[in-house]
Amino acid sequence: MGAKSLIDLLKLLPHPEGGYFRETYRSNEKTVNAEGANRSQSTAIYFLLENENKSHFHRIKSDELWFFHQGEPIEILYFENSELHTIQLGNDFLTGQVAQAVIPANVWFASRLAGGTGYGLVSCTVSPGFDFLDFEMATKQNLVAEFPDFSEIIEEMTLD
């Protein structure tokens, strides 16, 4: 099954950060996030990247867990403690890929297909639950000012 078939079958829509998604779960139970805002306790989505699609640098105010399903490995890039970290999400455990990963709250992160072609399908859960009010897209200018040693990857993985 190819990316187009999965996008249609799973009813995925374009995501503002890049790629395709569909929310599959939103808890009816509520909690308060770090800023005191009411949020669902947890949310989940399908997320798909294909070929040159990228999830551009962004951050949210909750931890996000990623779970690999199928397709090509996905590379997750994130800044923490002024360093760029990389996670290979996939099913080849012998080469260091992992089937699940955690991206901490409030860090800039992005993702792309590790090989640049094909597709990768994952699920992501967020707790406290995702809300677009907690979502911030990065700008090249701000990220380069904060992480000048990584201007090349920032140039590639930001929208503006």
Keywords:
160 residues; mainly beta; Jelly Rolls
Low-pLDDT segments? none
Tally of contiguous helical segments: 3
CATH fold type: Jelly Rolls
User: Sheet with the most strands?
Assistant: 6 strands, antiparallel
Structural description of this entry:
The protein is mainly β. It contains three helices and 13 strands. The chain is globular. The termini are far apart. The model has no long low-confidence stretch (mean pLDDT 95).
Provide the fold topology.
Blueprint lengths: L2 H7 L3 E2 L5 E7 L3 E3 L5 E3 L2 E8 L3 E7 L2 E9 L2 E7 L2 E7 L10 E4 L5 E5 L5 E9 L7 E3 L2 H7 L4 H6 L4
Short description:
The protein is mainly β and 160 residues long.
